[in-house]
């Protein structure tokens, strides 16, 4: 069997322009008619991923053996000479997922079976609750609890800086929708850490009063604090027993993670901005984190994420692989297959795909009572409505620019 054709396109997953993620899609067809689907991801840089695949990676695939997944991964990561960055990681992921899909279909087995079989029957997930005020955020958490979620990430807008708050509603990136005369690329929002540091402990105090210990609670800092600031926050949150505190500081500051470890026992999750096992390795071996969070479509695909899980296992680091909507439906399906197979799974982020996406990608992981499961269909187990998907045009995406009160740039 040989690869006969590789098609690449970027699809907007929502019917409403600008309201949903764009997804770089790959369709690989073999000379025996087997088809594998995959997707990469890079919010704000989707066209760069698609162009790299189409013009540089796809030509190397024609005539290649689709069974040689590892060899193909090594080819893309090493033959360029320049070591991988996020664009190459996203492009490699799309192809890697598609090749695994073909491998499963050829064998007549679901992906989890090819990965050693199930280590569990279902995958615990967490939902995203948020509010403009503490009262709103509490009500959002209670709503998720009533729906059956057993773990919930809680975010609240920073008082006085609602438009620049991460994960508290109001549009992608926390920046809200642009005004009629404002181009999305030039959106600027303001944010300050001090009121944020006051509001978050108040939120979790209220939440524990409302829900007790009936659900696991999580929170995402989104890399916005210095090590000593987040050490202060993590210690203040200790009485509320968070499942984990996510992305406390920028990932490149490994010494900062060490400082944080010395000041708190709050579990730490990090890694969504990693693009390889090499990025994750020092944090894992240094016991600086409790959960590793690489994203399937942003870190080289199933081949690489499986290796990251293996590296983490002997250090008792669990996985919490990234899963927002922009991870892409096919990458999310592959992630849940991996979650089912690995022994050191921790928790899975829920991308909250609506009915519209489930119509385009039939057979995505099924959610019930706080857990995801997958079907036993071969490969990813997902049927792509290709005709309708190709009718979803790409619309440029821009994260808002976040600045401090003095005009300095702040991590988004």
Q: Your description of this structure?
A:
- This protein is 36% helix and 18% strand.
- By secondary structure, the protein is an alpha/beta fold.
- The protein has two domains: 107 residues, Enolase-like, N-terminal domain (Enolase-like, domain 1); 265 residues, Enolase-like C-terminal domain (TIM Barrel), CATH 3.20.20.
- The strands form four sheets. Strands 4, 5, 7, 8, 9, 10, 11, 12, 14 and 15 form a ten-stranded mixed β-sheet that branches.
- Strand 7, helix 7 and strand 8 form a beta-alpha-beta unit.
- Helix 7 packs parallel to helix 8.
- It starts with a strand and ends with a strand.
- About 2% of the residues have low confidence.
Rg calc: 21 Å
For the largest beta-sheet, the strand count, sense and barrel status come to: 10 strands, mixed
Helix content: 25-40%
Query: What is the terminal separation in angstroms?
Result: 46 Å
Counting DSSP H or I runs of 4 or more residues, the number of helices is: 13
Based on the structure given, which CATH architecture of the largest domain is correct? Alpha-Beta Barrel
Write a brief structural summary:
The protein is α/β, with parallel strands linked by helices and 412 residues long. It has 13 helices and 18 strands.
